[in-house]
Amino acid sequence: MLHFLYSTFFRLALPFIMVKLWWHSRRSPGEWLHWQQRLGFVPRSEQPVIWVHAVSVGETIAAAPLVTALLEREPGARILMTAMTATGARQAEAIFGDRVRYAFSPYDTPGSVRRFVDRINPSALVIMETELWPNMISLTRARNVPVFLINARLSERSAQGYERLQIFARTILSRITWIAAQANDDAQRFLRLGARPESVSVTGSVKYDVVVDDPLRAAAARLRQDLGARPVWIAASTHVGEDQQLLACHQQILKKHHNALLILVPRHPERFASVAALVREQGLTLTRRTEHSGPVNTQVYLGDTMGELLMLYGAADMAFVGGSLVERGGHNPLEPAAWGIPVLSGPHVFNFEAIYAQLAEGKGLFKVANDAELARCVSGLMDGPEVAGRVGANALATVTANRGALHKVVDGIVERV
Predict the structure, then answer these.
(1) Distance from C-alpha of 179 to C-alpha of 169, rounded to nearest angstrom
(2) Extents of the domains making up the chain
(3) 109, 139 in Cβ contact below 8 A?
(4) In angstroms, how far is CA 140 from the centroid of its own chain?
(5) Rg, C-alpha atoms of the chain
(6) Out of 97, 274, 294, 320, which could bridge 344 as a Cys pair, Cβ 3.0 to 4.6 Å?
């Protein structure tokens, strides 16, 4: 009954959702592009595909090593990646080019999902993290297609929300073939909600398997040469309400470290222009990545491209990970940690609580309460490069010690397909 009510509500809401999508596309035109795909109208696939669903940018980045490993393990495999946002779709294309197919994922109405599944002919559905769309899962599983929830995480806050609909949650979770949880706490919460014990494993997070390869190191070294021999810190994946705090923080740092540079990378590309305007309003000089040519002599370097964040981390001496000074739950801190640089965050990291806890336990993380404390911490690291080096080495050691989830996940998927 709850599933029926959910589907009915979604059907009734769909016209309003489409109007909202059209309205939002006035600021972000890519959101309206290929709107038919959101209703399930995608090109037909004659051969089976592995459907990898990653809702937005963070999940797409997390899915990248998995997709690469699947292509290496099964060279003939055809992979279709879907995302709910244009940002996620652009991120996937920036990473993989023409090696995989892309589409917007269908809205979770029975008709949209059924059309989508009929047309793509999936051999497996791989869902990144915790996107529990009832019709996506149920209608795919009804075709006897295995459904995997990979890199699965479930915060206590989210678990309590699902518990209000315990029977509904149990029904959805029981249809998932395999849940590869990031940590034991995540696994226990899935079991508490009704997942089948035999379908739940603790594999660790595939995000620890981030690869910093030689081409990436070379690109970061070229950029760092242009940035010059001066203190450089990066604030990445920032949100509305954070950028102004970070610019105020940088102004405080400049009082002591006059040639310091901030690499500022907003989370969403539709904000690039507004953040650039904000930098200028604050009286700071700016170079945009898309306009960069030659030495950079400004105070702020705006990362306004897609698919380059991992490289940008490599050009910095320390990294603040955004979404944490405001209550967005934080973003992935393992990418800067993989470069062996100190990781800093605000207090709000509930989306990645286990990973942040491991970094803190390994002494590779500084957690600050506000922008004033962040300014003091960044300035202190600039004053003490030996401390920064030690903390960065600790961060890298934490990443290295927890690698290996990717192979477990790929093995688990291949065995069950």
Answers:
(1) 14
(2) 22-205+404-416, 214-401
(3) no
(4) 24
(5) 22
(6) 320
Three-state SS for 6?
helix
Concatenate the DSSP letters of all residues of 113-145 into one string.
HHHHHHHH-EEEEEEESS---HHHHHHHHTTT-
Of 31, 46, 59, 335, the active-site residue reads 59
Q: Does the active-site annotation cover 373?
A: no
HSE (side-chain half, CA atoms, 13 Å) at 358:
21
At residue 169, what is the residue type?
Answer: A
Backbone torsion region of residue 330, taken as left when φ is above 0, otherwise alpha when ψ lies between -120 and 50, otherwise beta: left
Which helix or strand (DSSP H or E) is residue 393 part of? Answer: helix 385-401
Contact 119, 91 (CB under 8 A): no
Side chain identity at 193, as an amino acid letter?
L
Amino acid at 339: W
Q: Identify the CATH assignment for 214-401 out of 3.40.50.2000, 3.40.50.300, 3.40.50.740, 3.40.228.10.
A: 3.40.50.2000
> What CATH class has 22-205+404-416?
alpha beta
Q: Which class for 43: exposed (0-12), middle (13-18), buried (19 or more C-beta within 10 A)?
A: exposed
Cα separation, 257 vs 255, whole angstroms: 6
The C-alpha atoms of residue 86 and residue 89 are separated, in whole angstroms, by 5
| Distance separating alpha carbons of residues 195 and 190, to the nearest angstrom | 6
Q: Which two tokens stand for residue 43?
A: 């090109």
How many alpha carbons lie under 13 Å from residue 368 in its C-beta half-sphere? 23
Closest CA to 122 of 131, 109, 110, 113: 113
Q: Residues 6 or more apart from 406 whose CB is under 8 A from it?
A: 65, 66, 69, 206, 209
Number of H helices, E strands in the chain: 17, 14
Q: CA-to-CA distance for 73 and 188, rounded, in angstroms?
A: 31
